[in-house]
Amino acid sequence: MLENWMSRLNLMVAIFFTAVLAFPGSGNAADFSADMVQTSSMGTMESKAFVKGSNFRHEMNFQGREQVTIFRKDKGVVWVLMPEQMMVMEMPSSSQQKMAPADPDELEKMGTKKFLGKETVNNYMCSKYLHTPKDPSLGTATYWIAEKLNFPIKVVSDGPSGHMVMEYRNIDEKTVSDALFEIPSGYRKMSMPMVPGGSGQ
């Protein structure tokens, strides 16, 4: 079951980092929560997302178990909480799943970004872009950045993990508590399991 859970986690991380790469701002996204719908070859996953600045919290229920993942871009870490065991795994920024830089200069270094026009997604006016990495094996990503939120609310990527679509629905613009992006008291840290091919620098 751990292997299935890690596969789901790795897929979600890949989709999220596609969105992080798409985010051209400097960490000043609006506070909001939303339903997050991810579609891939593994099927459709529905979950809950919370965004505050450059930080992100993802909550989902998998096989009857609650799973919480906190992306702290400001700290360069990802925390995976297991509420039932009151344990937390930490992925440091030195791992292959490091927090990717999201400013325009870094995007230009990694590939090309092409403006495709404007479209409305879930009642938000969005700027649509195509990002093509310099390494063709990484595929491409098309993303829609909601102008009001300064955040990508839809991402379609085609790459090593296949065709993936991530979309935010039922967006609720409200202040998100800082506490949602911290490790709860009483949690014990455990080592992150080795991910195949994850021994990068």
Task: Provide a descriptive summary of the structure in words.
The protein has helices at residues 2-22, 104-110, and strands at 32-40, 43-52, 55-62, 65-72, 77-82, 87-91, 111-121, 124-133, 140-146, 151-159, 162-172, 188-190. With 201 residues, the protein is mainly beta. It has a 12-stranded mixed beta sheet. A hairpin with a 2-residue loop joins strand 2 (43-52) and strand 3 (55-62). It is globular and about 50 Å long. The two termini are 28 Å apart. The model is unreliable at 1-8, 21-26, 94-105 and 194-201 (pLDDT under 50).
Please specify the SSE layout and strand pairing.
Layout: H1 2-22, E1 32-40, E2 43-52, E3 55-62, E4 65-72, E5 77-82, E6 87-91, H2 104-110, E7 111-121, E8 124-133, E9 140-146, E10 151-159, E11 162-172, E12 188-190
Parallel strand pairs: 6-12
Antiparallel strand pairs: 1-2, 1-11, 2-3, 3-4, 4-5, 5-6, 7-8, 8-9, 9-10, 10-11
Unreliably modeled segments: 1-8, 21-26, 94-105, 194-201
Compressed to H and E, one letter per element, the order equals: HEEEEEEHEEEEEE
The name of the CATH superfamily reads Lipoprotein localisation LolA/LolB/LppX
**Shape summary:** globular
Strand content: over 45%
- Please tally the β strands and state the result: 12
Most strands sheet: 12 strands, mixed
Number of domains: 1
The CATH topology is: outer membrane lipoprotein receptor (LolB), chain A
From the N-terminal CA to the C-terminal CA, the straight-line distance is 28 Å
> What's the average pLDDT?
78
